[in-house]
Each structure stands twice: as C-alpha cells, then as structure tokens.
Amino acid sequence: MTDILKTIFESVLVGNKKGVSDGVQQAVDAGVDAGEILNKGLIAAMSEVGRRFEEGEYFVPEMLIAARAMSAGMEIIKPLLVKAGVETIGKVAIGTVKGDLHDIGKNLVGMMMEGAGFEVIDLGVDVTPDRFVEAARSGVNIIAMSALLTTTIPSMEATIKAIEVSNLRDSVRILVGGAPVTQAYAEKIGADGYAADASAAARKALEIVGRS
Amino acid sequence: MKLPTSDYDKPNVRRLLAALHHQESDRVPHIELWVTSQAVYEYVLERKLDYTIGDAAEGGQSIAPEDDVEFATRQGEDAVLCNFNWRPNNVFRLASDGTRHYVDGEIKGRQDLGKLDPPPNLDDQLNYLERYLHAAQGTGVGVIANFTSFFDSTMLAIGVNDSFMMFYDDLPFLEEMMDILLENQVNTMRAVCDRFGDDIALVMVNDDIGYNSGLFIKPDLFMQLFPERMKRLIAPAKKHGLLTLMHTDGKMDNIMPILYDVGFNAAHPIEPESNDIVEVKKAWAGRMALIGNVHTPLLAYGSREEIEAQVRDYCMKLGPGGGWVLGSSTSIMDGVKPENFVTMVEAVHKYGRYGSLEGI
Asked: B333 touching A, CB under 8 A?
C-alpha cells in the first residue's frame, strides 16, 4: 500500500473526516486510480472497522465516525468511479419496515454495506411491502429489512410474502435484523439471513454476492 | 380477572422484596415495569377506561394510580411503578399506522440549551406518588419509584445518531447535558426518599446503556462517564436503605459487573435476544437479582401453550433460591394479546409455588 493510501486507511479508522478528504484529493491529484482508492483505501479501512467492531475493540461511535469519514472520501471519488465505469459489488435496498420509524440500526447497516463496496439504496423508514417489491423489481441483489419493535416485525413476513407473490423471490436475497429479530424468527419467515449487528450484516451481504 | 381470594394469589410486596434479597417466599413474584396497552389494562380490569393511555416516557398519559393498583391487585402483581421522568426535547413522529415513535432530539449543541424543556414540577410528582401510595394501602401492592437518568436521556435529547458522534466531536457538551439531567434527577430522588423512603418498596433507574452486543460505547469512556454519576443518583436511596433496580437493554456480560459495583441490587430485563437468563442467574446468584424475561414477541404472537411452557421452564430453572422476579422482556405494549398476558400471570401462579421447584 502506498503512503497516501495508508494515510486514507488510517484516517478512516480514526474517523478523521478531513484527513480522509485531504488524502483522497491528494491521491486523485497524484493520478491514483479511483478504484484503487476505493478498494485499498476506503473499503479496506471499513472492513478493518467491521473486524474491530466484531472483536469488541470498536463500538457504535467509532463505527459511525469512520463511516462519516469514508463518506467524505466517497463524495470525491464517486464521479470518477462513474466516469471510469467501475461497478459496485452489488446493490442493496434497505429500509425500516412499515409502521416503524426507527432508523439508527438501518443507517448503520447501510453505512457498513456501503463501506463493503455495495451500492446502497436507502428506502427510508415506514417502508411498505409494495415499496420493497418495487425495489426488488428494480434489480437489486439484496433486500435488507430492519425493525425495532415487536409490533412491527410481522411487516417483515408480509414483505417477504409480497415479494413471493410478485414472483421476485428467486431474484433477491433477503436479510433481516433489529432488536426483536432472532435467527429463529428469520428462518420462520423465510428470510435468507439474519444479522445481529451492522458489521455482521455487511459480512452476510458479502457472502451472498460471493465476496466473503 | 377476578380479585384473588387466597393470600397465595394476592399481591404481596414482601414476596417481591424476599426475591430481591435472594430468598424464597410462597411463590415467585411477578411485576411489569411498563404496561402501555390499553387493551391489556381493560381486559384485566374488565371495564373500559374513560381516558386514553400512552407511554409516560414519551409524554403520554399513564394509567391513573388507582386503576394501576387495581390492575395489579386483580393479577396478584406484587408492585407497580410510579414514574419520575424527565426526557426533554425528544422529537416524535407518527408512522403510517398511526403509532408514535421517537425519531430525534432537538438539543444539537450548547446553542440549543435555551430551549431545553423544563423538568416536571416536583410537587406535582410527589403528589402523584402520594396518590399511588394511598391507592396501594392495604392491598399488598408495593410502589416502586422509577427515575429516568442521565445517560440515555442525554442521547435522546440530542438525537441518538448525533450523540454517538458527539462522544468524539464534543464530549464536554455531552457531559454538561448529563450533569444538567443528573442534577434534577438527584434532587427528585432525594425528595422522594426524604418524604416517602419508608413507604416505597424500592427505587428503580431506567437508563439504556447497552444493546445486543454490550455497551454502546467503549468501556474506558463509559467508566469515565457513568459510575460516579450513577452513584450520585442512587445515593439518597442507598442512604435510606432502599433496594435499587436498574433497567437497561442489552447484552449483560460486561454490564452486570458495572451495575453491581455502582451498588444496584437487581437488573431488568436481561433481554433474551442477547442473554441466556439461566446462565446470568448462575453467574450472579446471591449478588444481583433478575427481573424478566418472557419474550415479548412470544406474548404477542405465541400460543397459550407456548407461554405456559416458557413460564414453567423459567420457574423450575430460575425460581429456586429466590433472586428472580418474573416479567416480560420489555414491556406490555399494544400488540400483546391480553389473553396471553393473563396466561403468563396465571402460569407463574401455577408453577411458581415454592416447595415444588427444582434448582438450576
């Protein structure tokens, strides 16, 4: 890894937003390929953040400031990636299910998935099954659903049924998570995976697209 | 539910206190710390309430003390909660199904302190507690004084997402907010203990410090912020010899030792998503009592047979030796079937009889 990519990597790890912006701009100015900045700088750093989170070394604040720093770098290279035709490793549509407005877990998962190299389409909160179906129809690889409340988890099952009825079940993989959700519940409703936290969700998504 | 006639089925705060002191009495006690379901209240009371119940922590109207005590008396619930909440500047929105949810906080920095919602009037709060105590007189129902705290209330006032980043961006402001909230709640706690310390059953503090992986923030930072402040908050209760109970969500492995060192005697609810309550009890038997943790989704979507089996299993594994009080894993909210709630209560009366339980 070159010094400048190392600086970007280290700046993401400590959540130094300005360090990441400056580093990415410097790398771009020096002619470093945008894909390399993405993969060896930003994504590699977020992968390390995920590892540290799962090891209990990092907590939610460290994950959030790292993701914020990464986003600052992404803003700079996104147009370059588009121009160069660099493809993301997959598309994820994420949302908090109908009847539920809680978005912290959903946002964290979105950030970690973006940090893993996915294009993340944030459907927001209180998302109806129909809206998830639309997303499935648009060609995403993964639908990720979040719920915080006992009273809203049935919306997950309703959404999976709606995707099945629309004959789209075979074209997407479905991940679920949130405080009252368990592995057993995920299996019961026919989801493809359950993740207990944002890092695990990103790891599951990588497994799904064969990048683990 | 009909009013119970036998002492065994009636509420008895001494039963609750015995369990919290790790002793057995006649049966396993049971309490619910938050009931926000109008349907469950009305089912147990066998009458309609002429007001609408909301979540007091979210600014809604709680059940009236007299109705709450009757609710407890009918089920043989051993104590009820009187809330001393100060959760300022929380922002709520309605979801498409009409339910109300916390979405953000308004205090984004020092510049917003001028618009901090004032705390509730202390005299009004004390009068409300007096109503509870009056209603509970002679019923056997204990009254728990429950206080919001400084850690999660600060995060909620700022907005959870923003507050997480503020641990790095502006820690001094976070601490300032914590101290503003703490100061008021210490004064309230002191007033409650000075005036009603002999009358209340125990003191509870409600502060979510963790989630399904453990603490929200790094332990070294948490230890800088939490223990000394929490010791200050519960000091009036400790001085008065009252037992103290802490509610926090989350995985308890690393949290229980902190609560124990701070001086808490019991923890609620030991969420089943991230804890094996049987293992937690084994680890903390004789030191920290547990309240919980019948899974709320089971109460919402399970069958009566499943609920009865779960309660029976818990009574067998957690009851012996005291130190355990049955309750749900979060709260009794809309969506919990009233029949299922009653099944849980009846099951603990059926299977929680001491003298017939096996140990873990």
From this structure: yes
